[in-house]
Write a structure and sequence with these properties.
It contains 7 helices and 9 strands. The protein is globular and about 50 Å long. Strand 6, helix 5 and strand 7 form a beta-alpha-beta unit. The chain is an alpha/beta fold.
């Protein structure tokens, strides 16, 4: 497992409704994510994407199965996971630089060192000119870049992204996708993205994992063989269109199940 950053093995999750009836959210999900790989998970509403995200992030326990996170070096007891959510989670009372420095402060890093390191990640997401601004002075896309920089400053072994651009307009999504692609390539960051947006999944990832409607099972894994370095320019290519079309053809059946389900 030397090359594996995250191993999901036979994972299932069952919830109980208020009436005591069980609802199976995930069933027998197994997936290995390699170091430095960017994997996107797509599926219809109700397929268990966010449940899987929360289990991997340690916010929720599995009913059966396990998530194995091999230490990145000998003797390291655990693997650090960074999470970026759809909702803006920047601290309104802190400047951009202070927001990004926050996890370093919590780790006990000296002020000068943490501000220097935070400045590096602020620069990486293109916010140096706004480092002394407060979140309310910035656009939604800029605030989301704060959250990404703050999470990366923690230097997570695994970056989990749950619909990070869902609240943004399409043009901003595409441009931030370009920026995220460049950052993850530069840092060799292992990343796992949950999204409803098939085009976004293909733009960013090395593989696209497709989940069925509830209970969520892996129905296919599609390699994205578009060349890297990659940008939103690929949106106009025939190869990109074919990949998006192939994924949608498989997911359409599952999405229809979600529309007609009363469960």
């Amino acid at each position: 497992m030397a090359d594996i950053a995250l191993s999901i093995q036979n994972l299932s999750k069952t919830f109980l409704r208020r009436d005591g009836e069980p609802v199976i959210a995930l069933e027998d999900v197994s997936l290995d994510v390699h170091r430095g790989e960017f994997v996107a998970i797509v599926g219809p509403s109700g397929c268990g994407k966010s449940t899987l995200f929360n289990i991997i992030g340690g916010l929720l326990g599995a009913t059966t199965g396990e998530v194995i996170q091999p230490a990145k070096s000998a003797g390291q007891a655990d693997t650090r996971i960074g999470m970026v959510f759809q909702q803006d989670s920047s601290f309104p009372w802190r400047t951009v630089l202070e927001n990004v420095a926050f996890p370093l402060e919590m780790m006990g890093m000296a002020k000068a060192a943490r501000l220097e390191k935070a400045a590096y990640f602020v620069h990486m997401v293109g916010l140096t000119d706004f480092k002394d601004s407060f979140p309310h002075q910035l656009s939604g896309g800029m605030r989301q870049r704060i959250c990404i920089a703050r999470t990366l400053a923690y230097e997570p072994d695994i970056l989990l992204l749950d619909e990070p651009f869902a609240a943004l307009d399409e043009q901003t999504r595409m441009l931030l996708g370009d920026q995220l692609t460049q950052i993850c390539a530069e840092l060799k960051q292992t990343s796992l993205l949950i999204t409803h947006n098939i085009s976004e999944a293909v733009q960013l990832s090395d593989r696209v994992v497709m989940l069925s409607f509830r209970p969520g099972r892996i129905i296919d894994v599609i390699p994205v063989d578009l060349p890297r370095p990659r940008s939103s320019d690929v949106f106009g290519s025939d190869q990109f269109a074919k990949l998006v079309g192939a994924i949608w053809a498989k997911l359409k059946v599952e999405a229809n199940k979600g529309l007609t389900s009363n469960a």
